[in-house]
Each structure stands twice: as structure tokens, then as C-alpha cells.
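Postdoc handover notes: sequence design on the structure in folder B. Input C-alpha cells:
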């Protein structure tokens, strides 16, 4: 657990980042006043979307963190799981729908419970670019051959990227945020 000074330092960094973002936005809107309405409307819509989705996501992640045992995650998604961990990460990433920012809390919980880094990268990548409903729409509009070639190449490159990132970053360098629960 972080000590009090580390928490204050992190809070200070978050506040500085937020103030910097507000300052850059204000400067840009000063120089481009015609964009003001679009920026305000888009920001408000994004805020409403996040505020309506994130509480439910956090509750689900809390339930997941408490009720899914760590040894189950380690067994199927951990270092000893082998290549099946990456493929299972891809499969888990293809099932849900919704914006990518919803996947990050789940990825943090999985990482904290012992999932290997390559599995987390595969999960996030699949969430971003492979969805079952998306594949069906792609099949309908672009055809079977296009869908299979794109899907095959996407899975292949997700696996390669996952292994490279795991090798470069290493598990000891990637730690989930302390806001996640789990044992």
C-alpha cells in the first residue's frame, strides 16, 4: 500500500495534469473561438457517457476482484498458463462491447491478480479491434474473405505485439494502480 506522501505526490501530479489540460484548452479556444461550441458540446457528451458507464463498471470490477479467486486467474492467465493465456485474453477481449476505457479497470484487476502482461495486452488489443458484433457487420458489408483475412492478421499481430511488449516491459515494471481491489 502506498504511504501518505506518495499518495499526496500522485494527487498533486493528477491536479497538475488536469490544470495543464484546462490551460491548453483555454488557450486553444482563445485562438480558435469558432470551435468553442463544438468543444463544449463534445466534452459534455463525453462526460455524460463516462458518468453513466463508469459507476457500473467499477461495481462490476469490485465484484470481480472479490469473487474471482487469484489462483483461478494465475492458473488460466498467468505465467504458467503458456500460450493459452494470450488466446484466452484475446477471447475475453472480443466478448464485451463498449468503449475501450471500460476495459482498463478490468485489465488492472487481472494484472493485480496475476495475469501475465502479454495476456493483458492481448485483452486490451482485442477489446479495441476485435468484437463479435463488429465481425458480423464486417462480414455483411465487406464479405467473408475480407473478414477472415483481417481477423487472422489482427490476431496474429496482437499475439506478436503481446509477446514483444511483455519481453520489453517485463512484469516487474508494470504495476496496476492501487485503486483496484483484489487479492
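Designed sequence:
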Amino acid at each position: 500500500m502506498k504511504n501518505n506522501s506518495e499518495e499526496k505526490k500522485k494527487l498533486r501530479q493528477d491536479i497538475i495534469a488536469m490544470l495543464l489540460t484546462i490551460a491548453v484548452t483555454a488557450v486553444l479556444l482563445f485562438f480558435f473561438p469558432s470551435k468553442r461550441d463544438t468543444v463544449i458540446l463534445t466534452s459534455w457528451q463525453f462526460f455524460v457517457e463516462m458518468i453513466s458507464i463508469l459507476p457500473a463498471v467499477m461495481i462490476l470490477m469490485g465484484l470481480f476482484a472479490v469473487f474471482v479467486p487469484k489462483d483461478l486467474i494465475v492458473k488460466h492467465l498467468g505465467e504458467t498458463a503458456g500460450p493459452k493465456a494470450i488466446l484466452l485474453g484475446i477471447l475475453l477481449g472480443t466478448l464485451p462491447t463498449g468503449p475501450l476505457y471500460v476495459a482498463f479497470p478490468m485489465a488492472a484487476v487481472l494484472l493485480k491478480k496475476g495475469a501475465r502482461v502479454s495476456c493483458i495486452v492481448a485483452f486490451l488489443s482485442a477489446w479495441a479491434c476485435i468484437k463479435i458484433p463488429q465481425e458480423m457487420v464486417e462480414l455483411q458489408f465487406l464479405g467473408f474473405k475480407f473478414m477472415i483475412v483481417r481477423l487472422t492478421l489482427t490476431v496474429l499481430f496482437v499475439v506478436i505485439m503481446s509477446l514483444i511488449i511483455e519481453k520489453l516491459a517485463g512484469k516487474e515494471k508494470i504495476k496496476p494502480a492501487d485503486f483496484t481491489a483484489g487479492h
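Context for whoever picks this up: The CA atoms of residues 55 and 85 lie 29 Å apart. Don't rerun without checking with the PI first.
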